[in-house]
Amino acid sequence: MKKIKLGAHPYIYPMPTVIVGTLVDGIPNFITVSYIGIVQHIPPMVSITLIDGHYSNDGIKKTGAFSINIPNTRMLVVTDYIGMNSGTNIDKACLFDIFYGELQNAPMISETPLNLECKLVQTINLNNGNAIYIGEIIETYSSKKYVRRGYPYMKKLDPILFSINSHSYYNVGHRIGWAWKEGLKLDKKKIIKKLKPEI
Amino acid sequence: MKKIKLGAHPYIYPMPTVIVGTLVDGIPNFITVSYIGIVQHIPPMVSITLIDGHYSNDGIKKTGAFSINIPNTRMLVVTDYIGMNSGTNIDKACLFDIFYGELQNAPMISETPLNLECKLVQTINLNNGNAIYIGEIIETYSSKKYVRRGYPYMKKLDPILFSINSHSYYNVGHRIGWAWKEGLKLDKKKIIKKLKPEI
Questions:
Q1: Alpha-carbon gap, residue B153 to B164, rounded angstroms
Q2: Predicted TM-score of the model (pTM)
Q3: Using the beta-carbon criterion (under 8 Å), do B15 and A15 form an inter-chain contact?
Q4: What would the pLDDT profile of B116-156 be if each residue is shown by its tens digit?
Q5: Number of neighbours of residue A155 by Cβ within 10 angstroms
Q6: What whole-number distance in Å separates Cα of residue A163 and Cα of residue A46?
Q7: Of A104, A159, B148, B155, which shows the fewest CB atoms inside 10 Å?
Q8: What is the ipTM of this complex?
Q9: Which of A32, A118, A117 is nearest to A75 (CA)?
Protein backbone atom coordinates (compact mmCIF):
# COMPACT_ATOMS: atom_id res chain seq x y z
CA MET A 1 0.00 0.00 0.00
CA LYS A 2 1.49 3.30 -1.09
CA LYS A 3 1.14 5.97 1.58
CA ILE A 4 0.80 9.63 0.74
CA LYS A 5 1.54 12.64 2.94
CA LEU A 6 -1.47 14.71 3.97
CA GLY A 7 0.38 17.42 5.91
CA ALA A 8 0.52 18.18 9.64
CA HIS A 9 -3.04 17.94 10.96
CA PRO A 10 -4.60 16.52 14.16
CA TYR A 11 -6.47 13.74 12.39
CA ILE A 12 -7.99 11.84 15.30
CA TYR A 13 -11.10 9.89 14.21
CA PRO A 14 -13.69 9.96 15.58
CA MET A 15 -13.96 13.04 17.75
CA PRO A 16 -16.57 13.15 20.53
CA THR A 17 -19.00 16.07 20.78
CA VAL A 18 -19.80 17.55 24.18
CA ILE A 19 -21.22 20.77 25.58
CA VAL A 20 -19.07 22.43 28.24
CA GLY A 21 -20.87 24.55 30.81
CA THR A 22 -19.46 27.23 33.06
CA LEU A 23 -20.49 30.41 34.85
CA VAL A 24 -19.34 33.64 33.21
CA ASP A 25 -19.96 36.63 35.45
CA GLY A 26 -22.43 34.49 37.35
CA ILE A 27 -24.48 33.52 34.28
CA PRO A 28 -24.40 29.99 32.81
CA ASN A 29 -22.74 29.76 29.41
CA PHE A 30 -22.27 26.75 27.18
CA ILE A 31 -19.85 25.90 24.38
CA THR A 32 -19.65 22.91 22.05
CA VAL A 33 -16.29 21.15 22.32
CA SER A 34 -14.66 18.28 20.46
CA TYR A 35 -11.11 18.83 21.67
CA ILE A 36 -11.73 16.66 24.70
CA GLY A 37 -10.35 13.42 26.02
CA ILE A 38 -10.11 11.20 29.05
CA VAL A 39 -6.91 11.80 31.01
CA GLN A 40 -7.12 8.91 33.41
CA HIS A 41 -9.51 6.69 35.31
CA ILE A 42 -8.29 7.02 38.92
CA PRO A 43 -8.67 9.74 40.02
CA PRO A 44 -11.06 10.42 37.14
CA MET A 45 -9.86 13.29 34.96
CA VAL A 46 -10.65 14.76 31.58
CA SER A 47 -8.98 17.44 29.50
CA ILE A 48 -10.41 20.01 27.13
CA THR A 49 -8.72 22.64 25.03
CA LEU A 50 -10.40 25.97 24.50
CA ILE A 51 -8.78 28.24 21.96
CA ASP A 52 -7.94 31.80 22.87
CA GLY A 53 -10.80 34.28 22.98
CA HIS A 54 -13.72 31.99 23.80
CA TYR A 55 -16.29 33.55 26.11
CA SER A 56 -16.19 30.55 28.46
CA ASN A 57 -12.43 30.66 29.17
CA ASP A 58 -12.57 33.35 31.84
CA GLY A 59 -15.45 31.60 33.53
CA ILE A 60 -13.54 28.37 33.94
CA LYS A 61 -10.42 30.18 35.16
CA LYS A 62 -12.31 32.31 37.67
CA THR A 63 -14.70 29.70 39.07
CA GLY A 64 -12.35 26.71 38.87
CA ALA A 65 -15.25 24.57 37.73
CA PHE A 66 -17.01 23.41 34.59
CA SER A 67 -19.40 20.74 33.41
CA ILE A 68 -19.30 18.34 30.49
CA ASN A 69 -22.71 17.53 29.07
CA ILE A 70 -22.99 14.75 26.51
CA PRO A 71 -25.85 15.40 24.08
CA ASN A 72 -27.60 12.75 22.03
CA THR A 73 -28.36 12.89 18.31
CA ARG A 74 -31.82 14.34 18.98
CA MET A 75 -30.04 17.40 20.38
CA LEU A 76 -27.99 17.90 17.20
CA VAL A 77 -29.52 21.22 16.17
CA VAL A 78 -29.05 22.92 19.53
CA THR A 79 -25.58 21.37 19.93
CA ASP A 80 -24.49 22.82 16.59
CA TYR A 81 -26.16 26.14 17.44
CA ILE A 82 -24.18 26.38 20.69
CA GLY A 83 -20.98 25.88 18.70
CA MET A 84 -21.88 28.47 16.07
CA ASN A 85 -22.58 31.34 18.43
CA SER A 86 -20.61 33.03 21.16
CA GLY A 87 -21.91 33.83 24.63
CA THR A 88 -20.74 37.36 23.92
CA ASN A 89 -23.73 37.82 21.62
CA ILE A 90 -26.43 35.46 22.81
CA ASP A 91 -27.76 34.02 26.02
CA LYS A 92 -27.36 30.26 25.86
CA ALA A 93 -28.68 29.65 29.37
CA CYS A 94 -32.26 30.09 28.19
CA LEU A 95 -31.94 27.13 25.84
CA PHE A 96 -31.79 24.53 28.59
CA ASP A 97 -33.14 23.47 31.93
CA ILE A 98 -30.10 23.92 34.17
CA PHE A 99 -29.23 22.09 37.37
CA TYR A 100 -26.34 22.06 39.84
CA GLY A 101 -24.74 19.24 41.80
CA GLU A 102 -22.01 19.19 44.42
CA LEU A 103 -20.34 22.31 43.09
CA GLN A 104 -22.33 25.52 42.92
CA ASN A 105 -20.54 26.84 39.85
CA ALA A 106 -20.71 24.03 37.31
CA PRO A 107 -24.07 24.50 35.52
CA MET A 108 -25.33 21.28 33.94
CA ILE A 109 -27.95 20.60 31.27
CA SER A 110 -30.93 18.47 32.30
CA GLU A 111 -31.75 17.54 28.71
CA THR A 112 -28.44 15.80 27.91
CA PRO A 113 -28.38 12.11 28.86
CA LEU A 114 -25.12 12.42 30.77
CA ASN A 115 -23.41 15.14 32.82
CA LEU A 116 -19.92 15.26 34.29
CA GLU A 117 -19.25 17.76 37.06
CA CYS A 118 -15.62 18.88 37.00
CA LYS A 119 -13.28 20.75 39.29
CA LEU A 120 -10.41 22.47 37.48
CA VAL A 121 -7.15 20.96 38.76
CA GLN A 122 -4.61 22.22 36.24
CA THR A 123 -4.40 24.72 33.39
CA ILE A 124 -1.69 24.28 30.79
CA ASN A 125 -1.21 27.47 28.84
CA LEU A 126 -0.02 26.86 25.32
CA ASN A 127 2.18 29.50 23.75
CA ASN A 128 -0.53 30.92 21.48
CA GLY A 129 -3.15 31.82 24.07
CA ASN A 130 -4.97 28.49 23.88
CA ALA A 131 -5.13 26.46 27.08
CA ILE A 132 -5.69 22.87 28.14
CA TYR A 133 -8.00 22.61 31.14
CA ILE A 134 -7.70 19.45 33.19
CA GLY A 135 -10.72 18.69 35.30
CA GLU A 136 -11.21 16.13 38.01
CA ILE A 137 -14.67 14.61 37.88
CA ILE A 138 -16.51 15.10 41.14
CA GLU A 139 -19.75 13.39 40.18
CA THR A 140 -21.66 12.16 37.13
CA TYR A 141 -25.41 12.37 36.53
CA SER A 142 -27.75 10.51 34.25
CA SER A 143 -31.22 9.01 34.39
CA LYS A 144 -32.21 5.37 34.69
CA LYS A 145 -33.14 4.92 31.07
CA TYR A 146 -29.56 5.57 29.92
CA VAL A 147 -27.94 3.23 32.43
CA ARG A 148 -27.22 -0.50 32.28
CA ARG A 149 -25.29 -2.38 34.95
CA GLY A 150 -24.47 0.88 36.72
CA TYR A 151 -22.84 2.76 33.85
CA PRO A 152 -24.09 4.73 30.87
CA TYR A 153 -24.79 2.50 27.89
CA MET A 154 -23.51 3.64 24.48
CA LYS A 155 -26.56 2.74 22.40
CA LYS A 156 -28.96 4.37 24.84
CA LEU A 157 -26.82 7.50 25.11
CA ASP A 158 -26.72 7.81 21.31
CA PRO A 159 -23.86 10.34 21.37
CA ILE A 160 -22.75 12.56 18.49
CA LEU A 161 -19.45 11.98 16.67
CA PHE A 162 -17.72 14.81 14.86
CA SER A 163 -15.49 15.02 11.83
CA ILE A 164 -14.17 18.56 11.75
CA ASN A 165 -12.57 18.15 8.35
CA SER A 166 -15.73 17.16 6.49
CA HIS A 167 -17.91 19.42 8.69
CA SER A 168 -19.99 16.34 9.49
CA TYR A 169 -21.69 14.75 12.44
CA TYR A 170 -22.16 10.98 12.68
CA ASN A 171 -23.92 8.63 15.04
CA VAL A 172 -22.62 5.42 16.60
CA GLY A 173 -23.12 2.23 14.62
CA HIS A 174 -23.31 -1.20 16.23
CA ARG A 175 -21.26 -3.26 18.63
CA ILE A 176 -18.50 -5.00 16.71
CA GLY A 177 -16.71 -6.87 19.47
CA TRP A 178 -15.64 -7.30 23.06
CA ALA A 179 -12.57 -5.68 24.54
CA TRP A 180 -9.98 -8.03 26.03
CA LYS A 181 -11.64 -10.94 24.20
CA GLU A 182 -11.30 -10.24 20.47
CA GLY A 183 -7.52 -10.36 20.83
CA LEU A 184 -7.70 -14.02 21.86
CA LYS A 185 -8.66 -14.86 18.28
CA LEU A 186 -5.25 -13.82 16.95
CA ASP A 187 -3.44 -16.71 15.36
CA LYS A 188 -0.66 -17.42 17.83
CA LYS A 189 1.41 -19.08 15.11
CA LYS A 190 1.90 -15.67 13.57
CA ILE A 191 3.50 -14.33 16.72
CA ILE A 192 7.25 -14.75 16.83
CA LYS A 193 8.76 -14.35 20.25
CA LYS A 194 11.90 -12.32 19.68
CA LEU A 195 12.03 -9.96 22.59
CA LYS A 196 15.48 -8.59 21.96
CA PRO A 197 18.01 -9.32 19.24
CA GLU A 198 20.77 -11.75 20.12
CA ILE A 199 23.87 -9.92 21.23
CA MET B 1 -36.44 13.92 34.11
CA LYS B 2 -35.04 12.67 37.39
CA LYS B 3 -31.25 12.48 37.39
CA ILE B 4 -29.37 9.91 39.42
CA LYS B 5 -25.74 10.02 40.60
CA LEU B 6 -23.42 7.46 39.03
CA GLY B 7 -20.26 8.34 40.95
CA ALA B 8 -17.02 10.00 39.86
CA HIS B 9 -16.03 8.41 36.55
CA PRO B 10 -14.56 9.76 33.29
CA TYR B 11 -17.64 8.98 31.22
CA ILE B 12 -16.71 10.47 27.85
CA TYR B 13 -18.68 8.80 25.03
CA PRO B 14 -17.48 7.71 22.57
CA MET B 15 -13.79 7.07 23.05
CA PRO B 16 -11.55 6.72 19.99
CA THR B 17 -9.24 3.70 19.64
CA VAL B 18 -5.70 4.17 18.36
CA ILE B 19 -2.41 2.29 18.40
CA VAL B 20 0.54 4.30 19.69
CA GLY B 21 3.98 3.33 18.39
CA THR B 22 7.38 4.10 19.84
CA LEU B 23 10.90 2.70 19.98
CA VAL B 24 11.82 0.96 23.22
CA ASP B 25 15.53 0.18 23.37
CA GLY B 26 15.59 0.59 19.61
CA ILE B 27 12.80 -1.91 18.94
CA PRO B 28 9.32 -0.81 17.78
CA ASN B 29 6.58 -1.34 20.34
CA PHE B 30 2.87 -0.65 20.08
CA ILE B 31 0.12 -0.04 22.62
CA THR B 32 -3.63 0.41 22.21
CA VAL B 33 -4.81 3.73 23.63
CA SER B 34 -8.21 5.34 24.11
CA TYR B 35 -7.14 8.10 26.48
CA ILE B 36 -6.35 10.38 23.58
CA GLY B 37 -7.65 13.68 22.31
CA ILE B 38 -6.96 16.57 20.01
CA VAL B 39 -5.29 19.46 21.82
CA GLN B 40 -5.49 22.07 19.11
CA HIS B 41 -5.46 22.59 15.38
CA ILE B 42 -2.68 25.13 14.89
CA PRO B 43 0.00 24.06 15.55
CA PRO B 44 -1.52 20.57 15.42
CA MET B 45 -1.22 18.78 18.74
CA VAL B 46 -2.66 15.71 20.39
CA SER B 47 -2.45 14.37 23.92
CA ILE B 48 -2.36 10.84 25.24
CA THR B 49 -2.21 9.52 28.78
CA LEU B 50 -0.25 6.40 29.53
CA ILE B 51 -0.66 5.01 33.00
CA ASP B 52 2.37 4.23 35.08
CA GLY B 53 4.29 1.07 34.25
CA HIS B 54 3.51 0.69 30.56
CA TYR B 55 6.40 -0.65 28.50
CA SER B 56 6.07 2.20 25.98
CA ASN B 57 6.47 5.04 28.49
CA ASP B 58 10.27 4.99 28.64
CA GLY B 59 10.48 4.82 24.87
CA ILE B 60 8.46 8.00 24.41
CA LYS B 61 10.42 9.81 27.11
CA LYS B 62 13.82 8.78 25.76
CA THR B 63 13.19 9.21 22.04
CA GLY B 64 10.89 12.24 22.29
CA ALA B 65 8.76 10.78 19.53
CA PHE B 66 5.76 8.53 18.97
CA SER B 67 3.21 7.67 16.33
CA ILE B 68 -0.57 7.43 16.40
CA ASN B 69 -1.97 4.78 14.10
CA ILE B 70 -5.72 4.68 13.54
CA PRO B 71 -6.90 1.13 12.83
CA ASN B 72 -10.11 0.22 11.04
CA THR B 73 -12.70 -2.31 12.16
CA ARG B 74 -11.04 -5.06 10.11
CA MET B 75 -8.04 -4.69 12.42
CA LEU B 76 -10.14 -5.22 15.55
CA VAL B 77 -8.55 -8.52 16.62
CA VAL B 78 -4.96 -7.30 16.42
CA THR B 79 -5.91 -3.94 17.97
CA ASP B 80 -7.43 -5.71 20.96
CA TYR B 81 -4.48 -8.10 21.14
CA ILE B 82 -2.04 -5.16 21.29
CA GLY B 83 -3.99 -3.79 24.22
CA MET B 84 -4.11 -7.11 26.06
CA ASN B 85 -0.40 -7.82 26.02
CA SER B 86 2.67 -5.91 27.17
CA GLY B 87 5.80 -5.39 25.14
CA THR B 88 7.62 -6.76 28.16
CA ASN B 89 6.41 -10.24 27.21
CA ILE B 90 5.83 -10.24 23.47
CA ASP B 91 7.28 -8.72 20.35
CA LYS B 92 4.58 -6.60 18.75
CA ALA B 93 6.80 -5.32 15.94
CA CYS B 94 6.43 -8.62 14.06
CA LEU B 95 2.67 -8.11 13.77
CA PHE B 96 2.91 -5.21 11.33
CA ASP B 97 4.71 -3.83 8.34
CA ILE B 98 6.48 -0.82 9.83
CA PHE B 99 7.56 2.39 8.13
CA TYR B 100 9.19 5.65 9.17
CA GLY B 101 8.62 9.21 8.01
CA GLU B 102 10.37 12.47 8.83
CA LEU B 103 11.42 11.31 12.28
CA GLN B 104 13.58 8.21 12.56
CA ASN B 105 12.13 7.14 15.91
CA ALA B 106 8.37 7.13 15.41
CA PRO B 107 7.56 3.66 13.98
CA MET B 108 4.27 3.65 12.05
CA ILE B 109 2.00 0.81 10.92
CA SER B 110 1.48 0.43 7.17
CA GLU B 111 -1.75 -1.54 7.64
CA THR B 112 -3.68 1.17 9.50
CA PRO B 113 -5.49 3.61 7.20
CA LEU B 114 -4.06 6.67 8.92
CA ASN B 115 -0.82 7.51 10.71
CA LEU B 116 0.16 10.60 12.69
CA GLU B 117 3.85 11.21 13.29
CA CYS B 118 4.39 13.08 16.56
CA LYS B 119 7.20 14.90 18.28
CA LEU B 120 6.87 15.01 22.07
CA VAL B 121 6.61 18.66 23.11
CA GLN B 122 5.48 18.42 26.72
CA THR B 123 5.08 15.79 29.42
CA ILE B 124 2.73 16.48 32.30
CA ASN B 125 3.45 14.16 35.18
CA LEU B 126 0.37 13.41 37.24
CA ASN B 127 0.90 12.73 40.92
CA ASN B 128 0.35 8.97 40.65
CA GLY B 129 3.02 8.10 38.10
CA ASN B 130 0.71 8.47 35.10
CA ALA B 131 1.68 11.08 32.52
CA ILE B 132 0.05 13.09 29.77
CA TYR B 133 2.20 13.26 26.66
CA ILE B 134 1.54 16.16 24.32
CA GLY B 135 2.74 15.60 20.80
CA GLU B 136 3.00 18.01 17.92
CA ILE B 137 2.07 16.37 14.65
CA ILE B 138 4.90 16.57 12.14
CA GLU B 139 3.21 14.77 9.28
CA THR B 140 0.24 12.50 8.56
CA TYR B 141 0.14 9.53 6.19
CA SER B 142 -2.66 7.70 4.47
CA SER B 143 -3.40 6.19 1.08
CA LYS B 144 -5.57 7.55 -1.69
CA LYS B 145 -8.50 5.24 -1.04
CA TYR B 146 -9.09 6.74 2.43
CA VAL B 147 -8.91 10.35 1.30
CA ARG B 148 -11.60 12.68 -0.06
CA ARG B 149 -11.01 16.35 -0.82
CA GLY B 150 -7.56 16.16 0.74
CA TYR B 151 -8.48 14.79 4.17
CA PRO B 152 -9.26 11.37 5.60
CA TYR B 153 -12.92 10.47 5.18
CA MET B 154 -14.72 8.96 8.19
CA LYS B 155 -16.69 6.27 6.38
CA LYS B 156 -13.66 5.10 4.41
CA LEU B 157 -11.47 5.08 7.52
CA ASP B 158 -14.05 2.99 9.40
CA PRO B 159 -12.43 3.66 12.81
CA ILE B 160 -13.10 1.75 16.03
CA LEU B 161 -15.01 3.33 18.93
CA PHE B 162 -14.51 2.09 22.46
CA SER B 163 -16.71 1.92 25.52
CA ILE B 164 -14.43 0.95 28.38
CA ASN B 165 -17.30 0.46 30.81
CA SER B 166 -19.15 -2.16 28.79
CA HIS B 167 -15.90 -3.64 27.42
CA SER B 168 -17.28 -3.04 23.94
CA TYR B 169 -16.10 -1.83 20.57
CA TYR B 170 -18.45 -0.08 18.14
CA ASN B 171 -18.21 1.18 14.59
CA VAL B 172 -19.33 4.52 13.19
CA GLY B 173 -22.92 4.79 12.01
CA HIS B 174 -24.05 7.24 9.37
CA ARG B 175 -23.80 10.97 8.76
CA ILE B 176 -26.55 12.74 10.70
CA GLY B 177 -25.88 16.36 9.82
CA TRP B 178 -23.60 19.19 8.83
CA ALA B 179 -21.57 21.21 11.29
CA TRP B 180 -22.21 24.96 11.32
CA LYS B 181 -25.43 24.37 9.36
CA GLU B 182 -27.72 22.27 11.59
CA GLY B 183 -27.73 25.09 14.13
CA LEU B 184 -29.44 27.39 11.63
CA LYS B 185 -32.60 25.30 12.07
CA LEU B 186 -33.03 26.39 15.66
CA ASP B 187 -36.26 28.26 16.18
CA LYS B 188 -35.07 31.80 16.75
CA LYS B 189 -38.30 32.66 18.57
CA LYS B 190 -37.13 30.46 21.41
CA ILE B 191 -33.99 32.49 21.91
CA ILE B 192 -34.35 35.32 24.38
CA LYS B 193 -31.62 37.92 24.16
CA LYS B 194 -30.75 38.74 27.75
CA LEU B 195 -27.01 39.13 27.78
CA LYS B 196 -26.68 40.44 31.29
CA PRO B 197 -29.24 41.18 33.98
CA GLU B 198 -30.30 44.81 34.24
CA ILE B 199 -28.35 46.60 36.92
A1: 25
A2: 0.93
A3: no
A4: 999 999 999 998 889 999 999 999 999 999 999 999 999 99
A5: 16
A6: 20
A7: A104
A8: 0.91
A9: A32
